[in-house]
Design goal:
The chain is built from 18 helices and no strands. With about 400 residues, the protein is mainly α.
Length: about 400
């Protein structure tokens, strides 16, 4: 397969700072989307323990998160994983290395890292899904570029919506466990009990209920990112101004309206019946468009020299994205969950205060990433992953974390 863009210069040069910055910025959205907070804060509101936040402002903040953050930044993150996949293909070709053998080993190690994270720390791990989808991608990386685009769109939109509809129609979303134990996960002081609950509610353990839609949507997102890498989008964005403008136009209108629809469905404000089930296809398509809108806005901002200097603050964060993603779990466990016997803030602070804590955690990650990248070329987890993945493979340039 010959890409539209000759990426040899990219492979031999330093990594694209814009992609690293966008990945680091996406991690900010992810830390806000994954923030653990109690749905019942009545006692906090009435006890005068809160410094900031009220039921009104907390609900407003939750709604804004649903409209502008939830599902959008993890989609951007997944697309950037696909972009990194395209770079790996070119790098291995440049070194005349058996790509499939190398990448399968790379994904298996990522799967192990994800399993350790998912089963021992937090069931919401996404890296296992990336590893599984990555293993599937080794079968199609030589496809023509247009086929990659259309299959990516097919997976990310109509097939994702279809899986959602089938899950509901076949009643596959019914869990075999008492869902009330999810709340116990946050407040149990026994790590063994935490592990038991964590394993019980794990998406891969409950594969039929949780995993098909995630794997289908994630595969589509990764393929779209792979396609962006094949056409040289991030290396030569000036060639795609018309496409970027369309992303921004439709993502900021139809995309946001779709997020409103998704929020209405997930909060029970909109009931889907046979006549309105087609809305799912529009909602999923809008989520993808809104994510592409964010990518387009970031690219446009990067082209402004003043804004670029500000956005460069995210570059080190993105260069060690896997490390920072895992560190977010550690911070949340120590600050909110009860079993590590840290601050145990879950249920004791308002959602507004929780989001401010998340911003403080991310600020620490920015500072730590800047310090670390002054001394090393990769994050600590990336170093370990690279060392394991490249066993028996000739030395390569620094690799993308995703």
């Amino acid at each position: 397969m010959k890409p539209y863009f000759n990426s040899q210069a990219l492979i031999q040069s330093t990594r694209l700072e814009m992609v690293d910055a966008l990945r680091g910025f996406a991690l900010l959205g992810i830390i806000l989307a994954n923030i653990p907070y109690s749905h019942d804060l009545t006692e906090v509101y009435t006890s005068n323990r809160s410094i900031l936040g009220s039921a009104y402002w907390d609900n407003l903040l939750k709604t804004a998160t649903a409209f502008f953050i939830d599902k959008k930044f993890i989609t951007v993150f997944s697309m950037l994983f696909g972009f990194g996949f395209s770079i790996q293909v070119d790098r291995m070709a440049e070194k005349n290395t058996d790509f499939r053998k190398y990448f399968i080993r790379r994904m298996l190690w990522l799967l192990l890292i994800g399993c350790i994270h998912g089963y021992l720390l937090w069931f919401g791990d996404i890296t296992r899904d990336y590893a599984i989808c990555g293993l599937l991608l080794v079968l199609i990386y030589k496809w023509p570029i247009r086929r990659i685009l259309w299959v990516g769109l097919l997976l990310a939109i109509p097939l994702t919506a279809l899986v959602f509809i089938l899950n509901a129609a076949l009643n596959l979303q019914e869990y075999t466990y008492d869902v009330s134990i999810v709340q116990e996960l946050y407040i149990t002081e026994s790590y063994w009990r935490y592990l038991t609950i964590n394993f019980t509610i794990d998406p891969l353990v409950n594969f039929i209920q949780d995993s098909p839609i995630t794997l289908v949507f994630c595969s589509g997102q990764i393929l779209l990112g792979f396609w962006l890498g094949r056409i040289g989008f991030f290396a030569t964005p000036q060639l795609f101004r018309s496409m970027i403008n369309k992303w921004i136009l439709f993502g900021s209108t139809f995309g946001i309206l779709s997020s409103v629809g998704f929020w209405a469905v997930t909060t029970g404000r909109l009931e889907l019946d046979g006549a309105s089930v087609g809305l799912i296809f529009l909602i999923v398509g809008g989520l993808v468009l809104q994510s592409l809108c964010y990518i387009g806005l970031f690219v446009k901002a990067w082209e402004n020299s003043r804004l670029q200097n500000i956005l460069k603050i995210f570059v080190p964060v993105g260069r060690m994205a896997l490390t920072n993603y895992l560190m977010q779990t550690i911070f949340y466990l120590l600050l909110f969950f009860h079993w590590p016997h840290g601050l145990q803030l879950y249920g004791k602070v308002t959602i507004t205060e929780t989001y401010l804590i998340a911003m403080a955690v991310y600020t620490l990650q920015v500072l730590y990433s800047h310090w670390w990248m002054k001394h090393f070329s990769q994050g600590p987890v990336e170093m370990l992953w690279r060392k394991l993945a490249y066993q028996g493979v000739p030395a390569q340039p620094t690799t993308q974390p995703y």
